[in-house]
Write a structure and sequence with these properties.
By secondary structure, the protein is an alpha/beta fold. 52% of the residues lie in helices and 12% in strands. The protein has a seven-stranded parallel sheet with strand order 3-2-4-1-5-6-7, with helices on both faces. Strand 5, helix 8 and strand 6 form a beta-alpha-beta unit. It starts with a helix and ends with a helix. The protein binds guanosine-5'-triphosphate and magnesium ion (MG).
């Protein structure tokens, strides 16, 4: 498929083209960047919702129930399941980790899982590009599910406007399952498995933690109870998701987040490109190798050499 075919295919809602584009993104094919660059103006419309929490806390079950409810309201849905522990991609995990079977025949729901295969530029980069592709594809709401077990949950903060943190009853007397970092990024807490003993106590504990939290918050994260199997409590989650989006719009934070993200992204891309160009120009050149030897022999210092090489690079005409 050519770049134009992919661009037109994605914009006209063809799933095969979208799947192909996400595979290119996963493989870090340069063509993906070309397609994304042409799709960019058609993105930024979806409400991206991150959902993170301990393994097995019911994230996928909740996403399934939320999707069912949102479909009744004619919202179109994308789901990206990020699994940093898995080398599988392209939906290989669907049956198991994403409990979305009931939606797989619905053309207005697009589900994709992302594993760690490839991704020199990082899983976060690939995830963010995949979400962008689904956004251009026209989905109204995109859920990004990540296991709350490391770096990934902090990175969804860059792509999601609303973040749901899940937990379950009885995961320790203190709130161990919810680590300090994750606490701060939550816009909505969901204590899932309300049918298990200790659910109310968990809600009380999280609320107590929020009450003593020294951070001044314009939005106080609500703490909700759900059952991921029956769908109990899911309507309240949707209400809070909508209320949070409304809050972001009215407070000007939505615009602010968008600006911050554009700034970060431009910064990252420039740094990546500059570094790559710089190395391509210098690596293997005799004067570069000589400078390295001099630094090692303490005849020159790396601070001065770095400044000189960068200045030469920036002002050279041969670039
Ligand atoms: N008792 C009970 N079980 C639930 C509830 N919600 C989900 N489960 C079960 O918990 C298990 C894990 O659910 P998932 O939705 O796969 O959880 P997850 O957080 O997506 O799991 P990972 O993606 O593997 O981290 C499944 O067996 C679900 O049926 C609930 O409210 N109560
Ligand atoms: Mg899951």
């Amino acid at each position: 498929m050519s770049v134009s075919e992919l661009v037109n295919g994605v914009l006209s809602g063809k799933r095969r083209e979208l799947a192909r584009l996400i595979s290119l993104i996963e493989n870090e094919d340069p063509e993906a960047a070309e397609v994304l660059s042409r799709l960019y103006k058609n993105t930024g419309k979806a409400h991206v919702i991150g959902i993170t929490g301990p393994p097995g806390s019911g994230k996928s079950s909740l996403v399934t129930k939320l999707t069912a409810e949102l479909r009744k309201r004619n919202k179109t849905i994308g789901v990206v399941c990020v699994d940093p522990s898995s080398p599988f991609t392209g939906g290989a995990l669907l049956g198991d980790r994403i409990r979305m079977q009931e939606h797989t025949l619905d053309k207005d729901v697009y589900v994709r899982s992302m594993g760690t295969r490839g991704h020199l530029g990082g899983l976060a980069r690939a995830t963010s590009d995949a979400v962008r592709a689904i956004d251009a594809f026209g989905k109204d709401i995109i859920f990004v599910e990540t296991v709350g077990a490391g770096q990934a949950e902090v990175e969804i903060i860059e792509i999601a406007q609303t973040i749901i943190v899940t937990d379950v009853p009885g995961s320790g007397d203190d709130i161990q399952a919810i680590k300090a970092g994750i606490m701060e990024i939550a816009d909505i807490f969901v204590v899932n498995k309300k049918d298990l003993p200790g659910a109310d106590r968990k809600v009380t504990e999280i609320n107590a933690m929020l009450d003593i939290d020294p951070i001044e918050r314009a939005w106080r994260p609500p703490v909700l109870l759900t059952n991921g199997r029956t769908g109990e409590g899911v309507l309240e989650v949707i209400e809070k998701i909508q209320a949070h989006l409304q809050f972001l719009k009215e407070s000007g934070l939505l615009e602010q987040k968008g600006l911050q993200r554009s700034r970060d992204e431009l910064h990252d891309l420039m740094r990546y490109k500059l570094t790559r160009e710089l190395y391509q120009k210098l690596e293997g050149r005799p004067e570069y190798e000589a400078a390295i030897k001099k630094i090692a022999a303490r005849k020159e210092d790396p601070y001065t050499v770095a400044e000189r090489l960068i200045a030469e690079f920036l002002f050279s005409e041969s670039r």
